[in-house]
Amino acid sequence: MRNVVPVLVVLSAIVGLWWAAVAPMNMRAALDVAERAKETVVPVGSVARRDISVFKLMANNHEHIASGYSLKRPRLPTPVQVGKEFWKTTGGMVAKGRAFSKRSLIYHGWITLQSTLWGFLLGTTIGILAAVAIVYSRVADMSLMPWAVISQTIPIVALAPMIIVLSNQVGIEDRIVPKAIIAAYLCYFPVLVSMVKGLRSPSSSELDLLKTYNAGGLQSFLKLRLPASVPYLFTALKVGIAAALVGTIVGELPTGAISGLGARILIGDQFGTPLAIWSALFAAALLAGVLVTLLDIAQRVTLHRMGFRS
Amino acid sequence: MSVPVVQAQGLTLTFQTNDGPVHALSDVNLDINKGEFVSFIGPSGCGKTTFLRVVADLEQPTGGIVTVNGMSAQEARLQRAYGYVFQAAGLYPWRTIGGNIRLPLEIMGYSKAQRNERVAKTLELVDLAGFEKKFPFQLSGGMQQRASIARALAFDADILLMDEPFGALDEIVRDHLNEQLLALWSKTEKTIAFVTHSIPEAVFLSTKIVVMSPRPGRVTDVIESPLPKVRPLEIRDTPEFLEIAHRVREGLRAGHSDE
Lengths: 310, 259
Prior knowledge:
By secondary structure, chain A is mainly alpha-helical. Chain A has two domains: 4-76, no CATH class; 105-306, MetI-like (MetI-like fold, Orthogonal Bundle), CATH 1.10.3720.10. Chain A has 13 helices and no strands. Chain B has helices spanning 48-55, 73-78, 97-107, 112-125, 141-153, 171-188, 199-205, 239-257; strands spanning 6-17, 20-32, 37-41, 63-68, 71-72, 82-85, 159-163, 191-196, 208-213, 218-224. In chain B, the strands form two sheets. Chain B has a six-stranded mixed sheet with strand order 6-7-8-3-9-10, sandwiched between helices. Chain B is globular, with a radius of gyration of 18 Å. Chains A and B meet through helix 10 and helix 11 of A and strand 6 and helix 3 of B.
C-alpha cells in the first residue's frame, strides 16, 4: 500500500500539468468565441492576434481565460471534459442499454480488440516459428534475420494502405484480415528477437548434460530450450500485444474504416471534434493497459508454477 | 584383473585457437580399473577437465585412443555408460528436485513406475528424501550439488565422471559432501573419476591420484593410495595421509618448475 502515495503524486502531477496547459492552448479559440459574442477582446480580430504570443494574450485578456476551460470545441480539452465524453460513450451507453451502438466506444473497442487479438496470435506464431528456424538453422539465421530487421525500419503508416489494397485485390472483403496482418507485422518482431535469445539461453553445460544422456534433438528442444525460453517469451508477449494494438489502430486510420478506435480518431479529426479523438485515445490506452496487465498476471502465475524465482 | 573401465593410450588433444595451437592433452596414458576412485589434480589448464570430457565424448581427441568399457567413447556415450556431474549443479530451475532426477529417466524411456522408484531410491542415497517436490532455488548449494549427483546416479551407469563438483562450496560443506560421496561410492561400487583443485580432497577420496601439469597438459605422477577403503575425516591427520599429500604437492611443484 505504501506505493499508493508516489503513484498518486505522479498521476496528479500529470493531470495538473495537463490542466495548466489548457489555458494557453485554448486562449485563441476562447478569444474568437468571445469576440463573436460581442465581448471586448484585445486586440480585435483573430488575424491581429495571430502574431501575438498566447501568454501576452492571456495577460491582456485575463477575464477570458476561464472560458477556455468550457469550450465546445477546445484545442486541448480539460481532463473533466475528456472524462465526461469518455463516460458518455462507454458507461453511459451501457446504462442506456446501447453498449454496442455505433456511437459507443465499447463497440469500436471491440472491433479493434478483435483485429488486435488475431494479429497478436498470427504475429506470435510467426515470431516463434521463425525463432525456432533461426536457432536451429544457420541458413535461416543468415537469410531471415536481416529481412526481419529491415521489415521494422519501414514506417507502418506507409505500409498499411498497401496491405489493405493488396488484400482487397485477392478478394478479402473483411476488414479484420488486413488489420490483423498489419498488427502481426508489428507484433512478430519483438517475439522473434526474444525467442531467439530465449531458445539460445541454455548454457553449454546444460546442453552437454543432454548429450551425455544421448538425448535427441526434439527431446532437447522440448525439455531444455523451450522451457528455458518461457521467461523471454512472456516479456516479448507484453511488448507484442501493445504493438499489435498500435498496428490495428494504424490500420484503421488511413483506410476509410468507419468502425474501430482508429476510425474514431480519424473521424474526430475530420469533423473537428477533439473530444471524440481524446476519448478514443483514452479507450485505446485503457485497452492496452488491460491487455498488458492480463499478460503480466499470466506471466507471474506461469513463472511461479514453473519454479522460476521472480 | 579384467579389462580397465577407462583406458587411454597416447591420448593427445590440441585446440586450434587464434593465438596458435593449445596442447590441452599430450600423450596421456592411463588405466582406470573397475571400482576405483581416481582423482585428477593439477593447476588450471593442465587438461584434467579436458581428459574427463574426452572420456565422456564431449571433446574429440586429435591423437591416441581412449576406450570406455572396451568401446569407443562415442559408443559408450550412446549406450549411456556414465553419469556426468558438472562443476555447477546445473539443475533445471523449472523442474523440481524430483523432476530433475527424472530428466535422464524420461529421455532414456524408463516407465513411470520405474522412474518414481528410482527417484525415491537415489534421493535416499544422497540424503535428500523429502525434498522431491522442492524447486532448486529452495535448496542450498550443497544440497543442489547432491541432487545433481543423484541425477547422475538415477540410471544404470556404473561410471561416474565428476568435474570439480564441490569446487564452489565452502570448506565445511565440502568435508561433509566428501564423506557422503565416499559412503555412496562404497555402497554403489561405481567407478569414479573426480577432478579437483584440492590436495586434501584428492587424497581423502581416492584410491588413485593422477597428478597433471599444464602446457602441454600431461600426467606427471600416478599415486596408488595405501589408505584403507573406509576413511573417517580424522584420517587426514595421520602420517600416511600427510605423506601422500606431500607426494602430490611435490608432483605439482615438479610440473611447475620445468615451465
